Amino acid sequence: MDNLLAEHAPKIDRDQGTTDPRPYALGYTDGEFKRLELQGALIHDLTEHVLRSAGIGPGMSVLDIGCGVGDVSLLAGKLVGPSGRVLGVDRSAEAVDIAERRATESCQCYWTCFTVGELDTFSPDETFDAVIGRLVLMYLPDPAATLRRLAGYLRPGGIIAFQEMAMALARSFPEAPLFSKCRGWIIETIERAGFEVDMGGRLPMVFAGAGLPAPQMNSAGLAGSGPDSPIYDYIAGTLRSLLPMAEAVGVATAAEMKVDTLAERLRSEAVEQQMCIMLPPLSAHGQIRRDNEPKGDIGCSTLPSSSARDISSTRATSRRSMCWALWFSFLRRRALASLASCAAPFRRVLPCRCTATPIRRPSSRFPARLKGFRSRRKASSRYRSCRATFSTCPAGRSTPFETCRLRRP
Could you give the CA distance from residue 406 to residue 382 in angstroms, rounded to a whole number? Predict the structure, then answer.
């Protein structure tokens, strides 16, 4: 089987420079990258629940291995906020380029970064509060060894959270021939390629092999029915990406799959039989290390209360930093406003063209019964008052609560 894969390696875009001789089953094509984005949208809520339950929060530093096009990294970046940091690593330079573009489009590029590296040999130059990943351990040659090594870069009280799939549990009700064929093609292709199809069920064994304590797991899946479900396109896209590998290992041919019309045929089958398709459930695991554990030495028990105190301390520190930054920004704006007020008598006053709400409180220059623009303009032909922000008032007043008395043109 290894010789067969090596023979077809150039055809299926074998990874370059990796210590893993197996090529990635799904390849690195534009269609695969689009499928990853669709997958991220489908299970976004499930992954967000896992990360929140694991304790990912503001101000934390997170490492995302096997980030792909950046879905999990961007989700973690939303949770940690600008006061935190997320580093995503993937072996595909093309996927990393897409992830960086998406981070820029979502305005997260300042604290969500990406790099290219081999997952089984990647060694970061910093420590993290959490190591996360989704559907990545199943493709590693020795996931336990990789977890053992990466856990050495966790800070005391750090979190390890992964979400993996149990493919054998995918099913439909009632059973349908076309969907059963698709499920068989996917599972058999990944098995023959040398990857794990039930990493979700093997998570306890993997974490035990890495020297981590017993996992705390939960399982959730996605189901769909009806003509508008995106599941049909997702299954067809998965088989489109797997087709070169399926032909290489002798599972099926392009003529048998007919991927161009597969989505429509699945939709017609589901609507005709009023079928419900249940995708493989995702098993999630969040693990907290011991607080007094030295770097590189995996502990055998957890202290959730101490870990919670560490995480709360990190969040409190980030909140204090943000409060100080807001306070200094407020003082700076007040100082600029004072300087502008002092310099006002010595410069030429420009007419105010801002479209702001007139002040309802009467000024001391005018009688109390006169309120609003019209009354003031009738009372004085030289001055008028307005309320404006720094961005809309040309006079340079810095707060929306100051009164600007400007000469009329």
Answer: 8
Tokens at residue 286, please?
A: 């969040």
Instruction: Give 198's strand partners.
Output: 166
Rounded alpha-carbon distances, angstroms, from residue 8 to 22, 246, 350: 11, 11, 75
Closest CA to 283 of 219, 376, 191: 219
For residue 201 the two structure tokens come to 């069920």
Instruction: Please name the helix (run of DSSP H) or strand (run of DSSP E) that holds residue 163, with its range, or none.
Output: strand 154-165
Q: How far apart are CA 47 and CA 269, in angstroms?
A: 29
For the chain, the straight-line distance linking the first and the last C-alpha, in angstroms and rounded, comes to 87
Q: Would you say 129 and 61 are in contact if contact means Cβ atoms under 8 Å apart?
A: yes
List, in sequence order, every residue forming a beta bridge with 277; answer none if it has no partner. Answer: 172, 224
Residue from 160, 180, 162 nearest 170 by CA: 180
- What ranges make up the beta strands (E) of 178-289? 217-220, 223-224, 276-278, 282-288
> What is the full per-residue pLDDT of the chain (409 aa) written as tens digits?
444 444 443 333 434 445 677 888 899 999 999 999 999 999 999 999 999 999 999 999 999 999 999 999 999 999 999 999 999 999 999 999 999 999 999 999 999 999 999 988 888 989 999 999 999 999 999 999 999 999 999 998 899 999 999 999 999 999 999 999 999 999 999 999 999 999 999 999 999 999 888 778 888 999 999 999 999 999 999 999 999 999 999 999 999 999 999 999 999 999 999 999 999 998 876 655 544 443 333 333 232 333 333 444 444 444 555 556 666 666 766 776 666 565 555 444 444 444 444 444 444 444 444 444 444 444 443 333 333 333 344 444 443 433 344 433 3
> Strand 154-165's sheet: what is its strand order?
112-116, 85-90, 61-65, 128-134, 154-165, 282-288, 217-220
Write down the pTM of the prediction.
0.68
Residues 6+ apart with CB under 8 A from 335: none
Spatial distance between the Cα atoms of 161 and 288, rounded to a whole number of angstroms: 9
**d(C-alpha 318, C-alpha 301), whole Å:** 28
What span, in angstroms and rounded, lies between the C-alpha atoms of 247 and 8?
Answer: 9
Please state whether beta strands 85-90 and 61-65 pair in parallel, antiparallel, or not at all (unpaired).
Answer: parallel
